[in-house]
Protein backbone atom coordinates (compact mmCIF):
# COMPACT_ATOMS: atom_id res chain seq x y z
CA UNK A 1 0.00 0.00 0.00
CA UNK A 2 1.26 3.44 -0.93
CA UNK A 3 2.22 5.52 2.12
CA UNK A 4 1.53 9.21 2.65
CA UNK A 5 4.78 9.75 4.57
CA UNK A 6 7.91 9.36 2.47
CA UNK A 7 10.41 10.39 5.13
CA UNK A 8 10.70 12.06 8.53
CA UNK A 9 13.71 13.91 9.90
CA UNK A 10 14.51 15.89 13.07
CA UNK A 11 14.36 19.66 12.71
CA UNK A 12 17.83 21.14 12.83
CA UNK A 13 18.93 24.78 12.71
CA UNK A 14 18.23 25.65 9.92
CA UNK A 15 15.48 23.28 8.79
CA UNK A 16 16.23 20.89 5.96
CA UNK A 17 14.41 21.96 2.77
CA UNK A 18 13.75 20.65 -0.73
CA UNK A 19 13.94 22.41 -4.11
CA UNK A 20 12.66 25.11 -4.80
CA UNK A 21 13.34 26.11 -1.16
CA UNK A 22 16.92 26.68 -0.03
CA UNK A 23 16.72 27.35 3.70
CA UNK A 24 14.23 27.81 6.49
CA UNK A 25 14.85 28.81 10.07
CA UNK A 26 12.52 29.11 13.06
CA UNK A 27 13.31 31.61 15.81
CA UNK A 28 11.48 31.47 19.13
CA UNK A 29 12.99 33.87 21.65
CA UNK A 30 11.45 34.72 25.01
CA UNK A 31 13.08 38.12 25.32
CA UNK A 32 12.83 39.92 28.67
CA UNK A 33 11.41 43.40 29.21
CA UNK A 34 12.99 46.13 27.13
CA UNK A 35 15.54 48.52 28.60
CA UNK A 36 13.92 51.66 27.16
CA UNK A 37 16.32 51.68 24.20
CA UNK A 38 14.86 48.61 22.45
CA UNK A 39 17.46 46.24 23.87
CA UNK A 40 16.98 43.61 26.60
CA UNK A 41 16.75 44.72 30.23
CA UNK A 42 19.35 42.14 31.15
CA UNK A 43 23.09 41.91 31.44
CA UNK A 44 24.69 41.00 28.12
CA UNK A 45 28.08 40.34 29.65
CA UNK A 46 27.36 36.92 31.09
CA UNK A 47 27.57 33.88 28.88
CA UNK A 48 26.97 35.69 25.58
CA UNK A 49 29.18 35.82 22.54
CA UNK A 50 27.96 39.24 21.44
CA UNK A 51 27.91 39.65 17.69
CA UNK A 52 27.59 35.89 17.25
CA UNK A 53 25.12 34.74 19.91
CA UNK A 54 23.29 31.63 18.70
CA UNK A 55 23.50 29.43 21.82
CA UNK A 56 20.39 27.19 21.72
CA UNK A 57 20.56 26.60 25.47
CA UNK A 58 19.51 30.21 26.13
CA UNK A 59 15.88 31.33 26.31
CA UNK A 60 16.77 34.12 23.89
CA UNK A 61 19.64 35.14 21.65
CA UNK A 62 21.21 38.37 20.41
CA UNK A 63 22.25 36.79 17.06
CA UNK A 64 24.63 39.28 15.40
CA UNK A 65 23.30 42.22 17.42
CA UNK A 66 25.45 43.98 20.02
CA UNK A 67 22.80 46.04 21.85
CA UNK A 68 19.55 45.13 20.05
CA UNK A 69 19.01 41.55 18.84
CA UNK A 70 18.99 40.83 15.14
CA UNK A 71 21.01 40.78 11.96
CA UNK A 72 22.82 44.04 10.98
CA UNK A 73 23.36 44.80 7.31
CA UNK A 74 24.37 41.92 5.05
CA UNK A 75 24.07 41.24 1.30
CA UNK A 76 22.00 38.77 -0.73
CA UNK A 77 21.89 37.81 -4.40
CA UNK A 78 20.03 35.22 -6.47
CA UNK A 79 17.01 34.26 -4.32
CA UNK A 80 14.13 35.58 -2.19
CA UNK A 81 13.54 35.88 1.54
CA UNK A 82 10.09 35.46 3.06
CA UNK A 83 10.01 36.56 6.70
CA UNK A 84 6.97 35.62 8.79
CA UNK A 85 6.68 37.27 12.20
CA UNK A 86 3.92 35.68 14.28
CA UNK A 87 4.93 37.36 17.54
CA UNK A 88 7.08 40.40 18.21
CA UNK A 89 8.48 42.81 15.64
CA UNK A 90 11.16 43.08 12.99
CA UNK A 91 12.71 46.33 11.71
CA UNK A 92 13.79 46.16 8.06
CA UNK A 93 16.18 48.58 6.32
CA UNK A 94 17.86 48.05 2.97
CA UNK A 95 20.22 49.49 0.39
CA UNK A 96 17.32 50.52 -1.86
CA UNK A 97 16.14 52.96 0.80
CA UNK A 98 13.20 50.74 1.70
CA UNK A 99 12.32 50.26 5.35
CA UNK A 100 9.61 48.88 7.54
CA UNK A 101 8.46 47.68 10.92
CA UNK A 102 6.32 44.57 10.81
CA UNK A 103 5.12 41.89 13.19
CA UNK A 104 2.19 40.28 14.99
CA UNK A 105 1.36 38.18 11.93
CA UNK A 106 2.82 40.31 9.12
CA UNK A 107 5.01 38.88 6.36
CA UNK A 108 7.78 40.56 4.37
CA UNK A 109 8.62 39.24 0.89
CA UNK A 110 11.93 40.43 -0.54
CA UNK A 111 13.43 39.51 -3.90
CA UNK A 112 17.19 39.97 -3.66
CA UNK A 113 17.63 39.36 -7.40
CA UNK A 114 20.80 40.97 -8.72
CA UNK A 115 21.79 42.17 -5.26
CA UNK A 116 20.64 44.03 -2.17
CA UNK A 117 21.83 44.70 1.37
CA UNK A 118 19.38 44.62 4.25
CA UNK A 119 19.26 44.50 8.02
CA UNK A 120 16.70 42.70 10.18
CA UNK A 121 16.63 43.84 13.78
CA UNK A 122 14.25 42.78 16.55
CA UNK A 123 13.42 45.85 18.68
CA UNK A 124 12.08 45.10 22.15
CA UNK A 125 9.28 47.66 22.30
CA UNK A 126 7.68 46.64 25.62
CA UNK A 127 9.40 47.84 28.76
CA UNK A 128 6.77 46.53 31.19
CA UNK A 129 6.47 42.93 30.01
CA UNK A 130 8.37 40.25 28.11
CA UNK A 131 8.93 40.57 24.36
CA UNK A 132 8.35 37.14 22.79
CA UNK A 133 9.57 36.78 19.21
CA UNK A 134 8.33 33.99 16.93
CA UNK A 135 9.74 34.31 13.44
CA UNK A 136 10.28 32.13 10.39
CA UNK A 137 12.59 33.03 7.54
CA UNK A 138 12.32 31.05 4.32
CA UNK A 139 14.64 31.28 1.33
CA UNK A 140 12.96 30.56 -2.00
CA UNK A 141 15.31 30.05 -4.94
CA UNK A 142 15.13 31.98 -8.20
CA UNK A 143 15.70 30.17 -11.51
CA UNK A 144 18.67 31.15 -13.65
CA UNK A 145 16.43 33.44 -15.72
CA UNK A 146 15.50 35.40 -12.57
CA UNK A 147 18.81 35.56 -10.71
CA UNK A 148 19.41 39.15 -11.87
CA UNK A 149 15.85 40.41 -11.49
CA UNK A 150 15.42 43.87 -10.03
CA UNK A 151 15.32 43.74 -6.22
CA UNK A 152 11.78 43.97 -4.89
CA UNK A 153 10.35 44.59 -1.41
CA UNK A 154 6.75 44.08 -0.34
CA UNK A 155 4.86 43.83 2.91
CA UNK A 156 1.97 41.40 3.34
CA UNK A 157 0.00 42.81 6.24
CA UNK A 158 -1.59 40.39 8.68
CA UNK A 159 -5.03 41.94 8.15
CA UNK A 160 -4.85 41.21 4.41
CA UNK A 161 -3.42 37.67 4.41
CA UNK A 162 -6.17 35.09 3.72
CA UNK A 163 -7.01 32.69 6.55
CA UNK A 164 -9.21 29.61 6.15
CA UNK A 165 -10.99 28.47 9.31
CA UNK A 166 -12.17 24.88 9.22
CA UNK A 167 -13.81 22.84 11.93
CA UNK A 168 -10.50 21.51 13.24
CA UNK A 169 -7.87 23.87 11.86
CA UNK A 170 -6.92 27.40 10.93
CA UNK A 171 -4.74 27.82 7.83
CA UNK A 172 -2.89 31.05 7.03
CA UNK A 173 -2.16 31.22 3.30
CA UNK A 174 1.09 33.09 2.75
CA UNK A 175 1.68 31.70 -0.75
CA UNK A 176 -0.31 29.47 -3.07
CA UNK A 177 -3.95 28.43 -2.94
CA UNK A 178 -5.59 26.37 -0.22
CA UNK A 179 -8.61 24.67 -1.75
CA UNK A 180 -10.36 27.62 -3.44
CA UNK A 181 -8.71 30.41 -1.43
CA UNK A 182 -5.69 32.09 -3.03
CA UNK A 183 -2.89 34.00 -1.32
CA UNK A 184 -2.00 37.60 -1.97
CA UNK A 185 0.16 38.04 -5.07
CA UNK A 186 3.81 37.12 -4.49
CA UNK A 187 6.73 39.17 -5.80
CA UNK A 188 6.51 39.55 -9.60
CA UNK A 189 9.73 37.69 -10.47
CA UNK A 190 9.19 34.92 -7.94
CA UNK A 191 9.03 31.21 -8.78
CA UNK A 192 5.76 31.45 -6.82
CA UNK A 193 4.31 33.96 -9.30
CA UNK A 194 3.48 31.21 -11.83
CA UNK A 195 0.58 29.09 -10.50
CA UNK A 196 1.87 26.11 -12.49
CA UNK A 197 4.76 25.89 -10.03
CA UNK A 198 2.22 25.33 -7.20
CA UNK A 199 4.38 26.99 -4.58
CA UNK A 200 2.65 26.96 -1.21
CA UNK A 201 3.58 28.37 2.18
CA UNK A 202 0.88 27.63 4.74
CA UNK A 203 0.99 28.11 8.51
CA UNK A 204 -1.44 25.51 9.89
CA UNK A 205 -2.79 25.30 13.44
CA UNK A 206 -4.80 22.12 14.10
CA UNK A 207 -7.05 21.72 17.13
CA UNK A 208 -6.03 19.36 19.93
CA UNK A 209 -7.58 15.88 19.99
CA UNK A 210 -9.00 16.21 16.48
CA UNK A 211 -8.38 15.00 12.95
CA UNK A 212 -7.20 17.31 10.19
CA UNK A 213 -7.08 16.42 6.50
CA UNK A 214 -4.36 18.13 4.48
CA UNK A 215 -5.59 18.31 0.88
CA UNK A 216 -3.44 16.83 -1.87
CA UNK A 217 -1.56 18.95 -4.39
CA UNK A 218 -2.58 19.15 -8.03
CA UNK A 219 0.82 18.37 -9.52
CA UNK A 220 4.10 16.57 -8.77
CA UNK A 221 5.72 18.91 -6.26
CA UNK A 222 8.13 18.62 -3.36
CA UNK A 223 6.02 18.84 -0.20
CA UNK A 224 7.35 19.06 3.36
CA UNK A 225 5.25 19.56 6.50
CA UNK A 226 7.23 20.96 9.46
CA UNK A 227 5.72 20.01 12.84
CA UNK A 228 7.32 22.70 14.98
CA UNK A 229 5.11 22.79 18.09
CA UNK A 230 2.58 20.56 19.83
CA UNK A 231 2.42 17.17 21.49
CA UNK A 232 2.36 14.33 18.98
CA UNK A 233 0.50 13.44 15.81
CA UNK A 234 -0.25 10.28 13.88
CA UNK A 235 -0.33 9.83 10.11
CA UNK A 236 -1.61 6.39 9.09
CA UNK A 237 0.36 3.98 11.33
CA UNK A 238 3.20 6.41 12.03
CA UNK A 239 3.42 8.41 15.26
CA UNK A 240 5.44 11.61 14.86
CA UNK A 241 6.78 13.82 17.64
CA UNK A 242 7.12 17.62 17.43
CA UNK A 243 10.29 19.13 15.97
CA UNK A 244 10.20 16.79 12.99
CA UNK A 245 9.87 17.44 9.29
CA UNK A 246 7.64 15.16 7.23
CA UNK A 247 8.18 14.64 3.49
CA UNK A 248 4.75 13.83 2.06
CA UNK A 249 3.40 12.20 -1.08
CA UNK A 250 1.75 15.22 -2.77
CA UNK A 251 -0.72 13.05 -4.67
CA UNK A 252 -2.63 12.00 -1.54
CA UNK A 253 -4.89 13.69 0.98
CA UNK A 254 -3.22 13.23 4.36
CA UNK A 255 -5.29 12.47 7.45
CA UNK A 256 -3.49 13.73 10.56
CA UNK A 257 -4.63 12.70 14.04
CA UNK A 258 -3.72 15.46 16.48
CA UNK A 259 -2.57 14.70 20.03
CA UNK A 260 -3.57 16.37 23.27
CA UNK A 261 -2.20 19.82 22.34
CA UNK A 262 -2.77 22.15 19.42
CA UNK A 263 -0.41 21.16 16.61
CA UNK A 264 1.44 23.90 14.71
CA UNK A 265 2.80 23.25 11.23
CA UNK A 266 4.54 25.11 8.42
CA UNK A 267 4.01 23.59 4.97
CA UNK A 268 6.46 24.32 2.15
CA UNK A 269 5.78 22.92 -1.31
CA UNK A 270 6.61 23.71 -4.89
CA UNK A 271 7.66 22.41 -8.26
CA UNK A 272 11.43 21.87 -8.25
CA UNK A 273 13.44 24.38 -10.27
CA UNK A 274 15.81 21.55 -11.13
CA UNK A 275 18.90 23.66 -11.80
CA UNK A 276 22.40 23.46 -10.29
CA UNK A 277 22.73 25.37 -7.01
CA UNK A 278 25.97 27.05 -5.95
CA UNK A 279 25.86 28.67 -2.51
CA UNK A 280 28.26 30.74 -0.51
CA UNK A 281 26.80 32.45 2.55
CA UNK A 282 24.33 35.06 1.35
CA UNK A 283 24.79 34.36 -2.39
CA UNK A 284 22.95 31.64 -4.34
CA UNK A 285 23.77 31.18 -8.01
CA UNK A 286 24.13 28.30 -10.49
CA UNK A 287 27.94 28.03 -10.66
CA UNK A 288 30.94 28.74 -8.46
CA UNK A 289 32.18 31.21 -11.10
CA UNK A 290 28.95 33.19 -10.62
CA UNK A 291 29.49 33.13 -6.86
CA UNK A 292 32.98 34.55 -7.29
CA UNK A 293 31.60 37.27 -9.55
CA UNK A 294 28.89 38.12 -7.02
CA UNK A 295 31.49 38.49 -4.27
CA UNK A 296 33.64 40.69 -6.48
CA UNK A 297 30.70 42.92 -7.44
CA UNK A 298 29.71 43.26 -3.81
CA UNK A 299 33.23 44.35 -2.85
CA UNK A 300 33.19 46.98 -5.61
CA UNK A 301 29.61 48.29 -5.40
CA UNK A 302 28.25 47.26 -1.98
CA UNK A 303 25.03 46.63 -3.96
CA UNK A 304 24.20 50.31 -3.82
CA UNK A 305 25.76 51.16 -0.47
CA UNK A 306 24.09 51.68 2.88
CA UNK A 307 21.90 54.81 3.24
CA UNK A 308 21.19 54.33 6.96
CA UNK A 309 23.23 55.75 9.87
CA UNK A 310 24.06 52.39 11.51
CA UNK A 311 24.63 48.80 10.33
CA UNK A 312 22.04 47.68 12.92
CA UNK A 313 19.58 50.45 12.10
CA UNK A 314 16.26 50.44 13.95
CA UNK A 315 13.33 52.82 13.67
CA UNK A 316 11.93 55.18 16.29
CA UNK A 317 10.58 53.26 19.27
CA UNK A 318 7.10 54.74 19.14
CA UNK A 319 6.68 54.29 15.42
CA UNK A 320 3.98 51.77 14.50
CA UNK A 321 3.92 49.20 11.74
CA UNK A 322 4.84 50.72 8.39
CA UNK A 323 6.45 50.07 5.02
CA UNK A 324 8.49 52.67 3.14
CA UNK A 325 9.12 51.61 -0.45
CA UNK A 326 12.07 52.64 -2.66
CA UNK A 327 9.81 54.94 -4.70
CA UNK A 328 8.92 56.89 -1.54
CA UNK A 329 5.46 55.39 -1.11
CA UNK A 330 4.62 55.01 2.59
CA UNK A 331 2.13 52.55 4.07
CA UNK A 332 1.09 52.80 7.71
CA UNK A 333 -0.83 50.31 9.84
UniProtKB/TrEMBL annotation:
TM region(s), chain numbering: none
Matches recorded under InterPro entries: Pirin (IPR012093), Pirin_C_dom (IPR008778), Pirin_N_dom (IPR003829), RmlC-like_jellyroll (IPR014710), RmlC_Cupin_sf (IPR011051)
Top-level taxonomic group: Bacteria
PANTHER family: PIRIN, PIRIN-RELATED
Family: Belongs to the pirin family.
Organism expressing this protein natively: Flagellimonas marinaquae
Pfam families, per the entry: Pirin, Pirin_C
All copies of domain Pirin N-terminal, residue ranges: 61-140
Domain Pirin C-terminal: 202-304
Taxonomy of the source species: Bacteria, Pseudomonadati, Bacteroidota, Flavobacteriia, Flavobacteriales
Protein name: Pirin family protein
